[in-house]
Q: What sequence folds into this?
């Protein structure tokens, strides 16, 4: 017999594991969503349907035109606020758009907001953000000299990984975000950002640590590098060495390009 104390304990175990929201009364087959999203070359206007908590079925629908019509970051933020094609919006508390210096020459892109980011409406302010800030400060970068955003601007319930379909509907906004910030260097944090922006078969393990080329929608060529996500480093601290090596490469490239870096304290 389970009593109320047991129930409280079970709920706290779920909460500690990040499962702190009830999102749907029906189970979702994420494998099916993946199959639909794998044909990324010819995007279907309706990508998937998901039933978020207390909402009717939401059609996950790409909308390239409202993203590309945005002429400034403010307009892009407003376009995202008005965008109804991603079900995650309905379970999130805040839109998490971006942070840092929008004129920076280096831009970082993560996966999706977590609970702290959702509460504050800012990217990378929780534990993994604090680790990232510390590591970047060691190569002379602060939020005054870099810009940061995510592939997905709304927190996936329970901090689950976003599905490829969710990344696909948000992609036009991310690409426009890059165009508007117009950086010279782009750093992808973790596998989701890497898969979404670099595509291909190779994952983060193979791709990390080498500069590749990314062409913006405006036709500009940008240096792009994938590195491990700070949340992964918190789980696997043994991988920090690889990130340090990658950060040193980034620092050298920035210096070569004449970017002013702070002395590391
Ligand atoms: N992880 C991310 O990918 N983004 C955030 O904003 C926070 C944690």
A:
């Amino acid at each position: 017999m389970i009593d109320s104390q047991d129930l409280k304990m079970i709920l706290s175990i779920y909460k500690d594991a990040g499962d702190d929201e009830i999102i749907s009364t029906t189970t979702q087959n994420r494998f099916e969503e993946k199959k639909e999203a794998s044909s990324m070359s010819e995007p279907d206007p309706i990508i998937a349907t998901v039933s978020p908590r207390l909402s009717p079925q939401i059609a996950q629908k790409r909308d390239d035109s409202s993203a590309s019509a945005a002429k400034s970051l403010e307009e892009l933020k407003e376009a995202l606020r008005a965008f109804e094609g991603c079900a995650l919006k309905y379970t999130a508390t805040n839109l998490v758009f971006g942070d840092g210096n929008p004129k920076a020459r280096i831009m970082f892109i993560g996966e999706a907001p977590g609970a702290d980011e959702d509460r504050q409406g800012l990217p990378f302010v929780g534990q993994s953000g604090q680790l990232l800030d510390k590591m970047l400060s060691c190569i002379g970068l602060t939020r005054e000299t870099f810009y940061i955003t995510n592939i997905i601007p709304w927190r996936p319930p329970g901090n689950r990984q976003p599905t490829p379909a969710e990344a696909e509907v948000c992609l036009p906004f991310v690409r426009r975000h890059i165009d508007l910030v117009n950086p010279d260097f782009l750093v992808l944090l973790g596998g989701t950002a890497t898969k979404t922006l670099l595509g291909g078969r190779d994952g983060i393990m193979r791709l990390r640590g080498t500069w590749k080329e990314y062409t913006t929608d405006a036709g500009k060529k940008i240096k792009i590098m994938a590195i491990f996500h700070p949340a992964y480093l918190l789980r696997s601290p043994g991988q920090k060495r690889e990130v340090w090596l990658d950060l040193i490469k980034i620092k050298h490239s920035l210096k070569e390009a004449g970017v002013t870096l702070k002395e590391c304290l």
Remarks:
- The radius of gyration is 19 Å.
- The beta strands are 46-50, 58-61, 99-100, 106-110, 146-150, 185-189, 212-215, 221-227.
- Residues 164-181 form the longest helix (18 residues).
